[in-house]
Structure formats: structure tokens, C-alpha cells
Amino acid sequence: MLISFLKKEEDGEEGKSKFMGKGDIIFLLVLAALIGGFWYYHKSAKEKTYSHYAKCEALFLADSLKEAKECYENAINLGYRIDSLDSIGYYRLEKMENTP
Questions:
Q1: H/E segment holding residue 97
Q2: Of the given ranges (55-59, 60-64, 75-79, 90-94), which has the lowest mean pLDDT?
Q3: Looking at residue 7, what is its pLDDT?
Q4: d(Cα 43, Cα 79) in Å, to the nearest integer?
Q5: For residues 3 and 24, is the Cβ–Cβ distance under 8 A?
Q6: What is the CB neighbour count within 10 angstroms for residue 89?
């Protein structure tokens, strides 16, 4: 599949000077939809992770250690995880396990 503006002029369409054809427009729309979908998924996954860790931190600071432990354990299954949040989560879990 050649993009229409890369076609050779041997096609016999000397009167037409199309820059892009219908296929090219559809291809670009699909590509834009894929990029936009990935961006939206990534953004929503980040927001979900940050709000989950904020909830866990609030539970930990309120001394609701049982709920905080469950919250941090559930954070392991989140779709978006970064090292700094994982470190905080594992540190908090270790601290809760060593607390009498």
C-alpha cells in the first residue's frame, strides 16, 4: 500500500493533483485514534495509581494499619507502577509487619 502522495506520476492522472486519498485519510485517522487511545489509557492508569497510593498513605497515617496493609498489597496489581511508589509501598508493608 503506497501513500497517495508518494505514487509515481505514471498512473495517468495528470489532471488530478490530489495530495491525499481516502485511504490515506483513514490510515491517519486510525493512527491518531490509536495514539490518542494509548495516551488516554496511560493518563487514566497514572491517575488511578496515584489516587490509590494517596488513599493507602492516608490510611497508614490514620493508623488504620489493617486497611493500609490491604491497600498496599492491592497496589501491587495496579497497571501503572513506578519505582518510587513501589519503594514506599514495600517500606510501609515491612514497617507494618514489624510493628507489634
A1: helix 83-98
A2: 75-79
A3: 58
A4: 11
A5: yes
A6: 23
- Report how far Cα 60 is from the mean position of its chain's Cα atoms: 27
8 Å CB contact between 56 and 72? yes
Long-range contacts of 52-58, Cβ-Cβ distance < 8 Å, separation of 24 or more: 52/78, 53/85, 53/88, 53/89, 56/89, 56/92, 57/88, 57/92
- Tens of pLDDT, residue by residue over 2-61, are 566 555 555 555 555 577 788 888 999 999 999 999 999 999 999 999 999 999 999 999
d(CA 64, CA 61): 8
Side chain identity at residue 3, one-letter code: I
* Closest by CA position to 97, among listed 78, 70, 75: 70
Report the pLDDT value the prediction gives residue 42, as an integer from 0 to 100: 92
Q: Which amino acid is located at 16 in the chain? A: K
Kind and range of the H or E run holding 45: helix 22-61
Give the model's pLDDT for residue 98.
83
